[in-house]
Design brief:
33% helix, single chain, 187 residues, seven-stranded mixed sheet, alpha+beta, 7 strands
Amino acid sequence: MTAAQADLARAHSEFLEIPEGLELDTPGVEDGAAIWRIARDSKALDLNSSYSYLLWCRDFASTSVVARSEGGEPVGFVTGYIRPERPQTLVVWQVAVDDACRGRGLAGALLDGLTARVTAESGVRRVETTITPDNAASNRLFTSFAERHGATVEREVLFDGQMFPEGTHEPEVLYRIGPLAPPAERP
């Protein structure tokens, strides 16, 4: 990380409000099973195979984040990746928080922390994610994220429900958030 990137990361970190007793960290392969469990227990996410979470923690750790309890156990996560054809865009794949830690602003802190790190390291200026219409919590999370970062939100259906093999999946609505304002320019 260059000196300018380190300065940007410090500036972004001033806006983070991490719930007491928790810390944000980069996931390791050893966190894959816990992340899979948190995703499974959320009952809101499409659960991927446990193997995919292990791979995610190996191959996309630099664009993902975990929240750890005082004992070091993961209690929340955000997985993401940089779009190959749009290197200034972070795609957020999944966000989940352990039931015992919900209602404390952890999902927002995870998203803010990850974005601060990836912005400093990779120059990200936009965030994309998909949300099903019935997921009110994710809609609030990403809408408030855009507001905190002085960004606009554009929405359009990315994958219609009929595209999925089971035929009963809700459509996945693409949220394009950006450009992200530098910390000094935020409202």
